[in-house]
Amino acid sequence: MRTVASLLAGLLVVSWITISCAATQCPPTEPDEVGPFYKPNAPVRSKVGTGYVLSGTVRSTTDCRPIPNARIEFWQAAPGGHYDDAHRATVLADAAGKYRLQTHPPPPYMTRPPHIHILVEAPGFQRLITQHYPAKKSEKAVFDLVLVPAK
């Protein structure tokens, strides 16, 4: 009986270690192209339309911890399929690394699927340029932005 209890205790410890290690592994967000319509210094605002909400947490690949006060720039095509200043925004992540952008569902244009461009900067981390591709007919998405520490 003692052997069975010892084996179970050992399995619990190994399981706990495996779960703990898996929980701290955060693969970096895949980079994507900046595209031809990036314009720096988008105005600070969290709303550029209605009908779609993109939110998430900015995190570190090192330990998945939230990165507070990251600067996130968004730009996307307007409903008519063209880029303009009204569809650009800078959002600052809060102290818990959380961000939220309210916008309209991005339209497809030319041969591109609907997408939102994202540029993320935080002190001590590499800059990330990526894109979010909303699911069809969705009204919201959670998209964590996982950054790599600077070298």
CATH topology: Protocatechuate 3,4-Dioxygenase, subunit A
Count every helix, treating DSSP H or I runs of 4 or more residues as helices: 1
Poorly predicted regions: 4-22
CATH architecture: Sandwich
Q: What would the principal axes of the Cα set say about the shape?
A: globular
The whole-number mean of residue pLDDT values reads 88
Main sheet summary: 4 strands, mixed
Distance between the termini: 53 Å
User: At the first level of CATH, what is the class?
Assistant: Mainly Beta
Structural class: alpha/beta
Cα-atom radius of gyration: 20 Å
Q: Which sequence of SSEs, written as H and E, runs from N to C?
A: HEEEEEEEE
Q: How much of the residues is beta strand, in percent?
A: 25-35%
Overall number of strands: 8
Classify the helix fraction into a percent range: 10-25%
| Total domain count | 1
Would you identify the CATH H-level superfamily? Aromatic compound dioxygenase
